[in-house]
Amino acid sequence: MDKDLKTNQPIIRYKNGSLIETNDYYVTEFPLTIVVNKEEFATVLCSPNHLRELIIGFLASEGVIHRQKDIKEIQIDDSKGFGRVTLNIDIDHLKKQSTKRMIASCCGKSREFYFQTDMNIAKTSQAQFTVAPEKIIEMMQQLQDQSKIYQATGGLHNAAISDGADFFIHRSDIGRHNALDKLFGYCIEARIPVRDKLLLFSGRISSEILIKAAKIGVGMILSKSAPTNLAIKLAQDLNITAIGFIRDDHFNIYSHPERIQTKS
């Protein structure tokens, strides 16, 4: 069962030259140890909700699973912080994969990845949808409005997956990667195709976040914040439309603007 995402605690606040005893909300940080086929795989520090989706999305992002049927059983013991996964597949080959930084070539372009797993799983988008500028601004405002825990605590990352018209799902987490993994896990479990979908994200578009979007398989990522230069290079190479600084009535398009509808 999901735990509370926030806790009300006493604090001392400094304001207008005085120290005031009051209460405030903290976000909940929860260590979840994922055990795969009876072997400890990873411990994820996360918000304690939608843990099944998180586990599925995390394992898919790490290249451990590729589809729902790879999973035989998931047992979650949130009282002790364990998620035990039994797979229908053998994963011994993953232990042999190199974690060295790699540079690979694709379609005549240089593509940089930090880990071999990223290179193997990140997908070049084949998305052909378009989105109106007004809808981009509207959806980012909708993401802001739905982020009630963030508004109370200021301590969460928020993300949503959309078809360009409506949200399919919205997720929050203390970890930016976790929020996206929860969305990924939801889509895998619900068998929702993601090729024609886009991600909305509250944080900076770093290269890691861009690679995560490519692993999920979406064609567009939207953020209210800034991208990094490597993220833009990867977005250009992976055919992903990256849009940042979505605020008020404007935004910046950093790659593949052909997916933005124009009136002309």
From TrEMBL:
* Keyword field: Cytoplasm, Molybdenum cofactor biosynthesis
Report the locations given in the UniProt record.
Answer: Cytoplasm
Q: A GO term (biological process) for this protein?
A: Mo-molybdopterin cofactor biosynthetic process
User: What does this protein's UniProt record list under function?
Assistant: Required for formate dehydrogenase (FDH) activity. Acts as a sulfur carrier protein that transfers sulfur from IscS to the molybdenum cofactor prior to its insertion into FDH.
* Protein origin, superkingdom: Bacteria
By its UniProt entry, which Gene3D superfamilies does this protein fall under?
A: 3.10.20.10, Cytidine Deaminase, domain 2 (3.40.140.10)
Q: What is this protein called?
A: Sulfur carrier protein FdhD
Protein family:
Belongs to the FdhD family.
What's the source species for this entry?
Staphylococcus massiliensis S46
One cellular component term (GO) for this entry is: cytoplasm
MF terms from GO for this chain are: sulfur carrier activity; sulfurtransferase activity
